[in-house]
Write a structure and sequence with these properties.
Elements lengths: L1 H7 L2 E3 L8 E3 H14 L3 H14 L17 H33 L8 H5 L5 H4 L1 H4 L16 E6 L4 E2 L17 H18 L12 H10 L15 E3 L1 E7 L4 E7 L6 H8 L1
Antiparallel strand pairs: 1-2, 3-6, 4-5, 6-7
Length: 269
């Protein structure tokens, strides 16, 4: 196979099997560090690469000899993804080897599973030391609460049914299990059904047409308009819970049309 030869030469292929382009590993590492520091978009970086080549008289053409409008964007996105997967798998193997070596020195570590050693739950103080690093809790809510969180959902991060689950190489620490979120939703529906017969409808001064128009304009809560193509996406978006310093604390998948209250309750409880 040509892929091991390319990696040995310092090149990383765009795909592991049917490769089209290969990039230097140093360039991939540089971009990932650049993305981590200043969130450089993939499209802008690929456009810079194309301009860098064009100034030096290098143009990428198709089979008919015509210049390709965007020769790097797709291949670069796939290459960075596979490079990250490879680095995570290498890190996992190294941690397993270190764990086995430590077990020879400290027999008590034998009772600790390797998976628990690698994927230990991240504490709140590690996520945001400013919010969760204090020692005193229970301040006056009217003055200033201990922790302020913000939640928002978007429908731009979707998962196609045809994409499958992908390789099992990493256990996410921030994502809530979909079964847990669904269980919270079922419990909320049961409580609503139990209190619905005795519920008293609050009087409102707004006309029903105004309330209906406001409801129709709130796109995020629309259940009739399924976000994404029906039967094409199994995960329609994400809901993120972050602290006041924009540090993500918990994330859950949106699996229903619209943003339901169960996502908020599941994230903050």
């Amino acid at each position: 196979p040509i892929t091991p030869c390319l990696v040995a030469a310092g090149l990383w292929p765009s795909t592991p099997v049917h490769l089209v382009l290969a990039f230097t590993i140093k360039l991939l590492a540089f971009y990932l560090q650049l993305f981590a520091d200043c969130m450089a978009p993939n499209e802008a970086f690929c456009e810079t690469l194309q301009q860098f080549h064009a100034v030096r008289g290098v143009f990428h053409c198709n089979d008919k000899g015509r210049p390709i409008e965007d020769p790097f964007c797709h291949a670069w996105a796939v290459a960075t993804q596979w490079y990250q997967l490879g680095m995570i798998m290498i890190t996992s193997h190294l941690e397993c080897a270190l764990h086995e070596a430590w077990c020879l020195l400290i027999p008590d570590l034998l009772s600790l599973q390797v998976s628990e050693y690698i994927h230990q739950p991240t504490s709140d103080s590690t996520l945001c030391p400013t919010c969760f690093g204090g020692e005193e809790w229970g301040s006056n809510m009217k003055i200033f609460p201990d922790i302020l969180v913000q939640l928002d959902g978007n429908f731009h991060h979707r998962c196609n049914l045809s994409g499958g689950t992908g390789p099992s190489f990493y256990s996410p620490l921030l994502f809530l299990d979909d079964m847990y979120v669904s269980k919270v939703g079922c419990e909320m529906e049961a409580m609503q059904m139990a209190t619905q017969p005795n519920a008293v409808q609050k009087a409102t001064t707004l006309v029903e047409e105004v309330v209906a128009a406001c409801w129709d304009s709130f796109k995020a809560a629309q259940e009739k308009d399924s976000q994404g193509v029906p039967g094409f996406h199994d995960e329609k978006g994400l809901v993120v819970c972050s602290c006041m310093h924009d540090v993500p604390l918990l994330i859950c998948n949106i699996t229903t049309p619209g943003e339901h209250q169960m996502y908020v309750i599941a994230l903050i409880c």
